[in-house]
Amino acid sequence: MDIDQIRINKYTIRCVCLSVFLFVFFSGLLACSTETNQNIWPPVPPIELPLDFQKSDSKIETDFQITEKKLYAFGLRFLYKGGDQDDRIRVNKLSGGHGSIIDGKIFLPLSEKGVPLSLRLTVYKFDNSHQKQLLLQNDLHTDEIGINSWGDANFDKELESMTLEPGKYHIQVKTLYASPELSNTTAHFSITFAYRGK
């Protein structure tokens, strides 16, 4: 092997090594960028948390963060099979209707109350020393609340709303009794921006 071939081989090896390094480096950057955008911890709203309504004392809890002062809604999202009208009707009976406004209050006739669910919602805010300070603790009864929005495959029911300042928070949600009627229905607890129209 002459000197020119040795030089070509060294040059080729260097090019291959540099190419591999650049590929790994930029792949890592892309992965970090994707992770930062999609998997922020603690998460920011909108957030959906699965909760087992078939069991009494079923509990979920998580930290979350607020980056913008706004009115936020804590609620339930009932899911149905998109495009399946029979499943939509079935889940709507469970979630309840939207009711009517009478004298400034939402009135839900018995036929629109849906499955009665009772939850205990507890919200804490972390202070500067990372200690939890209680902001809210309410027992919520969903059959008294109508659905406030729906989409292609879901019905949403706002249970509580409050203005949250930027910072880190902790939420706990607990079922107060079992609701076996939801055994074939997926329902999530949600933290979203509270929509109040224009």
Keywords:
198 residues; alpha+beta; Jelly Rolls; 2 domains; 5-stranded antiparallel beta sheet; 4-stranded antiparallel beta sheet; 2 helices; 39% strand; globular
Summarize the structure in words.
The protein contains two helices and eleven strands, in the order H-E-E-E-H-E-E-E-E-E-E-E-E. It is α+β, with helices and mostly antiparallel strands and 198 residues long. It folds into two domains: 1-39; 47-193, Sandwich (Jelly Rolls), CATH 2.60.120. It has a five-stranded antiparallel sheet with strand order 1-11-3-9-8. Strands 2-10-6-7 form a four-stranded antiparallel sheet, with no helix packed on it. The radius of gyration is 25 Å and the shape is globular. The N and C termini lie far apart (78 Å). Residues 29-38 have low confidence and may be disordered.
Q: Which sequence of SSEs, written as H and E, runs from N to C?
A: HEEEHEEEEEEEE
Mean pLDDT: 84
Topology-level CATH name of the largest domain: Jelly Rolls
What sort of overall outline do the alpha carbons produce when their principal axes are compared? globular
pLDDT < 50 stretches: 29-38
Please report the distance between the alpha carbons of the first and last residues: 78 Å
Count of helical stretches: 2
Helical content, roughly? Answer: 10-25%
Strand order of the largest sheet: 1-11-3-9-8
Give the percentage of residues in beta strands.
Answer: 35-45%
* CATH class annotation of the largest domain: Mainly Beta
The total count of strands amounts to 11
Oligomer: single chain
Largest β sheet strand count, sense and barrel closure: 5 strands, antiparallel
